[in-house]
TrEMBL record:
GO terms for cellular component: plasma membrane. It is a multi-pass membrane protein. The lineage of its organism: Bacteria, Pseudomonadati, Bacteroidota, Flavobacteriia, Flavobacteriales. Keywords: Cell membrane, Membrane, Transmembrane, Transmembrane helix. This is Chain length determinant protein.
Amino acid sequence: MDNTPTKNEEITLKDLIQKVKEWYLYFLYKWKIIVIAAIIGFALGLTYAIIKKPIYTATLTFALEDEKGAGGLGGALGFASTFGVDLGGGSGGGIFTGSNLAELFKSRSMVEKTLLTPVKVNGRLISLAEMYIQNNDWREKWRDNQRYSSVKFLPNSKRKNFTRDQDSILGLMYTDLSKSGLSVIQKDKKISITTMDVSSTNELFAKYFCEALARQVGKFYVEAKSKKARMNMSILERQVDSVRGELNSAITGVAVANDNTFNLNPALNVRRAPSARRQVDVQANTAILTELVKQSELAKVTLRKETPLIQVVDRPILPLKKEKLGKVKGTLTGGFIAVFLTLLVLGVRRLLNELDLKV
């Protein structure tokens, strides 16, 4: 059995200080390389700060109207169900609340429809998609590419008629915007106010896109939530027209039957039966029409109650919030990164050399 005592390899404070001193002298010996790296970093940081376009952020806040119950209207809606009409007390758009509404704003369908919205730029009417392409200089990049050079996005174009190349370009725009250009958050769950931010290097694009997206989503949201009430109102209006036609026909029938029995022999009462039947039809259709008109007006009230559902609180106002990397900050950041990377490379090289010597 080997009873040789093991060597104590614990690092003392003196050894640690010695090690730090060696590293300091090593880096001091390489001061020329570090200074050159710092100068290059300063230059690159300054250049980046100069050529980097500022980021403009358009902010729009809106409040979502709280859903209200039908209250006292509930009892009056019962009669409508006998005609196959469900006016209901709820809304057809309950799924679009909270985080679901935020996802609706960031959905590809809403973003692409917004990109096809017309805007006026320099006296020309173009789509936001074309404005986005111009802002990112994509036309210059596609100059030698016949596949994309002829692609155009006209305002209010029909999405279903787009080519594969147009779909691909719109998809790229959506990806860029959803990753860094579009943010929809509810800052406080206790407050039903949602904030939407749109960031872009083009101040006008940020403002136009922010407002157009709010209009697009608002329109879709209103249609979704009022769809059921709109359908019910349409059914009731058709039934009112149908019953009114029947009532008019019955009134005409009573008049015709009365004409046929004018100066009729009192003994021939059977000839008065058609007039009596028509009178019953008039009374029944009058009662039905009265109720249907009431329900039709109630459906109109319900539809008005559903809209508007999104109330804009604050709109983006020019000049927008601007974020730009300052020259001093860019220069110092570039120099710091360059020096840090240089020290890291030099340190790794020294460690590798020491390992080679030990081996």
